[in-house]
Amino acid sequence: MSYPTIEDCVGNTPLVRLQRMNTTSNTILLKLEGNNPAGSVKDRPALNMIQGAEEDGHIQPGDRLIEATSGNTGIALAMAAAIKGYKMCLIMPDNATTERKDAMRAYGAELILVSAQEGMEGARDLADAMAARGEGIVLNQFANLYNPRAHIHGTGPEIWQQTKGEITHFVSSMGTTGTIMGVSEYLKGQNSAIQIVGLQPVDGDQIPGIRRWPKAYLPAIFDSKRVDRVMDIRQKDAEDTMRRLAREEGIFAGVSSGGSVFAALELAKSVENATIVAIVCDRGDRYLSSGVFSE
């Protein structure tokens, strides 16, 4: 008998109905990506980027990989590197939660911190500089086509099958934009009328996992034509909805997931006969030390 390995457990996550928070006649469904082995939607592209680099001959076991991350991709890459036998160096802002830093180290990754002021832009610049000095190989989730392909071949088909093709709207936070780009390409290929809704924080707010990129740092994989509507989300609304999800639905999720569900609820007020699918990116346990669940 052939038993699965841990990498076989990436994907095929549940799609569940929002029960108490949705007061409209529309259906709101949540894709629980925290059920992936390393706890987030980023497990999919992390594994796919390493597998793709292997297939293309760009890396081989024992190589040192470098990546800038705000958290979830780093944890997922640390897991994937452990599975595949790579050294993983992760660069991230120092204001990330303790749980995220510890999870990366638990998988054996080396962690380099930049200041919160330097942010993800500074982390990306440092990763590029290290690669230029020959200190490792950057996978570059922001420009790597294996990022959205993980969702073209995984997340998108799963949602289509789980909704039996009834999905009318797809809602996703935009960070690297890999999820929304890949799912959009697949779903639009099945039904061009499906509306793709992307989320970014209002100017000045900070929501882990959602970014409002300066033009110079806009991910190369992003194509604005694949997004029908962009909604600005307030940090307070994302956090309030995240707490409500745990208390009213029993769904323990992170801040960006709160933003996605808030957007889905707002959207449901203005449409009819809709089946809205929102991505719940990760679990809430990696945000506990930030105090967001204590308020």
From TrEMBL:
Gene Ontology MF annotations: cysteine synthase activity
This protein's UniProt keywords: Amino-acid biosynthesis, Cysteine biosynthesis, Pyridoxal phosphate, Transferase
CDD domains with a match to the protein in the record: CBS_like (cd01561)
Entry cofactors: pyridoxal 5'-phosphate
Catalytic reactions on record: O-acetyl-L-serine + hydrogen sulfide = L-cysteine + acetate
Domain Tryptophan synthase beta chain-like PALP: 7-282
EC code: 2.5.1.47
Pathway, per record: Amino-acid biosynthesis; L-cysteine biosynthesis; L-cysteine from L-serine: step 2/2
Residue positions, PTM N6-(pyridoxal phosphate)lysine: K42
Biological process annotations from GO: cysteine biosynthetic process from serine
Amino-acid biosynthesis recorded as keyword: yes
EC category: transferase
PROSITE patterns (UniProt xref): CYS_SYNTHASE
Keyword Amino-acid biosynthesis: yes
Positions bound to pyridoxal 5'-phosphate: N72, G175, T176, T177, G178, T179, S256
PANTHER family: CYSTATHIONINE BETA-SYNTHASE
UniProt family annotation: Belongs to the cysteine synthase/cystathionine beta-synthase family.
Protein name per the record: Cysteine synthase
Lineage: Bacteria, Pseudomonadati, Pseudomonadota, Gammaproteobacteria, Cellvibrionales
